[in-house]
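> Could you send the MFS domain-containing protein prediction when you get a chance?

Sure thing. Input:
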Amino acid sequence: MALSPPLGLKWRSSYAFTTFVVGIGVATDLVVYSIVVPVVPFQLERLGYHSVSALAGWLLFAYSAGLVICSYSTPSGHFYAEQNEGTIPIAMFSERYQTRRAPLILGLLILVGSQIMFMEAPNYAVMCIARVLQGCGSTMVWVVGLALLCDCTPEQFIGRQLGLAMVGMSVGFLAGPPIGGAVYSRWGWRGPFIFGIIMAMFDLVGRLFIIERKDALKYGFDPAAVTHTAEEEKAPETLETPTVTNNISLISVIVRLCKSSRALVTLALTGLFGLIYSAQEPTLPLHLQSVWGLDSAKVGQIYIASIVPTLFSAPLSGFATDKLGVEWLSCICFALSVPWWAVLIVRQSLVLFIVALALGSFFVSGVISPLMVELATVARQIDDGHVYGSFNLVYGIGLSLFPPPLFTLIVGLVTQGTTLGPVIGGQMYAHLKDGWTAIMILTAVVLALCCGLGFMYIGDKPLGKRLLMRQNRD
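Output:
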C-alpha cells in the first residue's frame, strides 16, 4: 500500500518555502548575534572593565571560534552518504538519522541555550563560552540551511533564491542593534536576550514544517524539477535519492580545492568579507559615543539608518548575478564599496557618516550572492558537497583567531594575517592613537584587494583573462 503524502507536501518542500525558512533562520541568527553589539561595550563599562573595545572584540571572536569549530562538525555536503565526515556529537547524530532538518532544529536549541547562558553569565569568561556555543548553533543554518536550499532549487534559480534568503542577513543586522539598544535602555541587560529567545521560538515553527527533498522524492515529487506550467509540474517518472558511495575526507576536499583557483579565491574573498564586517563591530558603538556622544539607544538608531539599504542589495545582486554573471557583480560591488569606507574617517558630520556607512554596507553586502553562486558552481565542477562547509569555515576564519592549520595554508597566502577580525578591530581601536582611522584604511585596502582578486579569478571567464585575451588578439 502506497504511503499517503504529508499534508502540504508540495508547498512545504518547495524552494519558495525553503527560501523563506532559511531566510528567517539567517535573520534570527544575525539578530541574536548583533543584538548585543551596541550593548556589550556599555555593559562592560558599567561592570568596571577596562580596554572595553578589546574585550568586546574577543567576545565577537568567541562566536566565530564556535562557527569554525563546528563547520566540519556538521554534515555540510551530500547528506545522503552512508557516512558523513565530522566530529562527535553532531556527526554521530547526522550519520544515524541522515537528515538536514534535525540538525537545523538542534542548532536552534543550542542557540537558545547559549542566549540563556550569556544572559545569566556571572563573569566575562562565561560570556565567552556562551558566545562559542552560539557560534556552534549558528553553523547549522549557514551550512545545513544553505545546502538544503540548493538541494530543492532548480539550478537556473539558485542565484535568485540565495539572494532572497540573504535578505535575512540584512534584516538581522538591521533589527538586532536598534532593538538591543532600545531594550537594554528600557529593561536592562536581560531584555535583549529574552527578545532573541522569543524570536528563535518563531523560527522553530518554520524549521518543523519544512520537508526535505529526499523525503519529497519518496512520494514522487521533486521540488527542484518544478517548472512554471501545469503540465511540466508533474514529477519525472523516475526519481532517485542522491547517493554518494565514498566518504570524502577533509584532506581530500582540501586537495581538490587547492587544484581550483576559483575555489581558493572565492573562499579567500569570503574570509576577507568576514574581516570587513567584523573588524568594526566592537568599535563602532565606542566611536559614535566618543565623537558624537551617543548612548546605546541612539547607536541602535544609527544602525537602522545605515543598514536599511542593504535589505535591497542581496536580492538585487542575486537577480543581477543570474543575468550578468558572478564576475561582473563581484568586481562592481567590491570596487564601488572602497571609497565609502574612506569617507567614514571624516568626523565633521554625523549625517555624512551615516550615508557613507549605508552605501559602504550596501555594496559590500551585495557581494554575498555572487560569491555563493560561485561556490555552488565550483562545487558541481569538483563534485564535492563540502564547499558550503568551506564557505562557513572561511567566513569564520575571517572572524576568528585560530583557524584549522590546513585552511590557514589555503587562505593565508591571500589574507596574510587578516584572520583576526574583531580582535584586530578591538586591539587597533584600544591601542592606536587613531584606531578608527586605521581600521577604515585597512578595510578600504582589503576591499581593493578583493576587487583585484575577483577581476582575475572569479567566474567561468574572469574579466582579467578576457582583457588579456582581447589584447593578445589585437
